[in-house]
Amino acid sequence: MKKRLALLATSLAIFVNWNVLAFDVTSYRYGNSDQGANTNESTLSLDNVDPWDFGLKATVPIQGQIYGAPLIKTINNKSLVFIATQQNVVAAINATNGAVVWSRTLTNYGTPVPSDDTGSGDIQPFIGICSTPVIDNWNWLYLISKSKTNYGGMDHYVQAIYKINAATGAINSTYKFADTGFDGNNYYYRTNPSSGDPYVIGYGDGSITSTISLASGRRILNVSTNVVYFNALRQMNRPGLTLVNGTVYAAFASHGDNGPYHGWVLGFNTTSLALNSVLNTTPNGGLAGSWQSGGCVASDSAGNLYLETGNGSFNGFQTNSRGIPIDANYGDCFLKISPDSSTLTTPNPNGWGLKVADYFTPYNNQSINDADLDVGSCGPVVISSGNKTFILGTGKDGSMYSMSSTNMGKFDPNTNHCLQTINQAVGNGGEWTGFSTPSYLNNRFYYFAAGDYGKQFTYTNGLIGSWYTDGDGIVRTDVQTPNTYNWPGANTSISANGNKSAIVWAIDRDASVLRAFRSTDLLEIWNSTMSQADNLSNALKFTVPIVANGQVYVGTDGALFIYGLVPAARN
User: In whole angstroms, what is the distance from residue 438 CA to residue 198 CA?
Assistant: First the structure.
């Protein structure tokens, strides 16, 4: 009893002193490297995350499905939790008592898009805000919404970026960066070269002939050429937003592979929201979207971006002297993307303001593409060690790849030149299994893939260890959970106090259960079914639990669940 009372007092003290002890979560999974670890958690520990001291504290009803990860920011000495939904609702919730501080439905450009309009039932019934927003140091919250409206006798699909005051919910500014009309057969874009929809030069899927402005010496000429425009109906912003050096980056794929679509990365200036960069992964082909099971566009300390692409056009047999595909198409690739000096009127092969600096794709790129085994089924993790930076990622077939940021490996039809490949490392040898973005801490990372056990691997100087192949040819690890997890597995996160009391958190979506594991041996120490009072419901695929300041936040279909230390009397 004394232990429980002491823990309750500690929990209450944390609530009172948010301004002293609060840890902010302002982007997907705690930071741009996407390692998924919060090492500033001093309240929750291996001693109190148990059925007696830990449980459900509040359930906050919200209109719509919360696919993006919750964010946490202390503003005016009050800790707020920010969520956004597919109904284009964005809200701030008091972390102490679960009260809604403000809620706003974004109606500037219409209503959320009915899922049936996209031809995909993957997300039902509406599509609005799908990705994780981002918050800057000045308490501006940035998000991207999708809407439908009708004017001129035609349905129009709009994608827009919003800049919102995180303290009050007031909209500071918006920018409608794409507006696509659709009459059931044809698409209509805004084609003004300086103020129209984002575009790149190319003859890829959905391209049309358009007049654009290009520099010729000191002159600007209007040139008629093939152009690929951003299609606001077909493109979907699933990866979390990323803020780097005053630019908000957003990546896009499709709704259920319904085309025409491409992989896009768009950069927006945080002050004006104007576009400052555009990159298309298949300007002369198709597909190669970036969806990553919701994982963000990762970045390193130098400002380079990293993402994975799905199935799509790739020709590694026609490259320039640096091994770069001549047609600038990057289906099923890991990409390193860097800012460059190109502009709208002086573009590079993939766009302007950003360029593909390096890439890696497996030697069996074509067979991966043919079998719908996207390399880009999870987000890449960026890991720095000394003066070296490594990239870790997995494809839909469960194969695992480790790369150096200075030489990712490019393409060879005979063998891989990345640092390491482990075929079907996760997923028990099955296909459509590698949907788990790993979390990383203390030279160990954790995968909870579909149809497989949760697994712990070691990672030293870019090399994956602590694994072996059993008699059936299945990859096993020295440390793994006793139970397997159904599709789609889980995107995990980690809480720890420095290197101590590390806990791996996972949402078992198939069973709608929140689970907590001791990181050293993956012993399950708590789950939300141990007490009926803690039950989680309506979990969504690819969502990730976020831990901060003694509480765990889980977004679901219609509610935010808040877990933390609970009074002894409740038990």
Answer: 32
Q: What is the mean pLDDT of each run of 10 residues along the chain (571 residues)?
A: 38 39 92 96 97 97 98 97 98 97 98 97 96 98 98 97 98 98 97 92 98 94 97 98 98 97 98 98 98 96 97 96 96 98 97 98 97 94 94 95 98 98 90 88 95 95 95 92 89 95 96 97 97 96 97 98 86 58
Q: What is the spatial order of strands in the sheet that 54-65 belongs to? A: 54-65, 557-565, 551-555, 546-548
Using alpha carbons only, give the angle 161, 165, 166 rounded to the nearest 5 degrees.
100
- Pairwise CA distance, residues 343 & 340, whole Å: 9
Give 70's DSSP letter: P
What single-letter amino acid sits at 540? L
Using CA atoms, how far residue 537 sits from 17, 123, 560, in Å, is 31, 17, 10
Dihedral angle at the C-alpha atoms of 21, 26, 28, 34, nearest 10 degrees?
-70
Q: How far is the C-alpha of 223 from the C-alpha of 324, rounded, in Å? A: 27
Q: What does the DSSP assignment read for 312-367?
A: B---TTSB-TTS-BTT---TT-EEEEEE-S--SSS-BTTEESEEEEEEE--TTHHH
Cβ-proximal residues to 243 (8 Å cutoff; 6+ apart), any chain:
26, 27, 32, 134, 136, 142, 249, 270
What does the DSSP assignment read for 264-283?
A: EEEEEETTT--EEEEEES-T
For residue 286, give both structure tokens.
């198709």
Distance CA 119, CA 121 (A): 7
Strand order across the beta sheet in which 100-105 lies: 71-75, 78-84, 89-94, 100-105
Q: Global pTM?
A: 0.95
Strand (E) or helix (H) holding 93: strand 89-94
Half-sphere exposure of 127 (CA within 13 A, CB side): 27
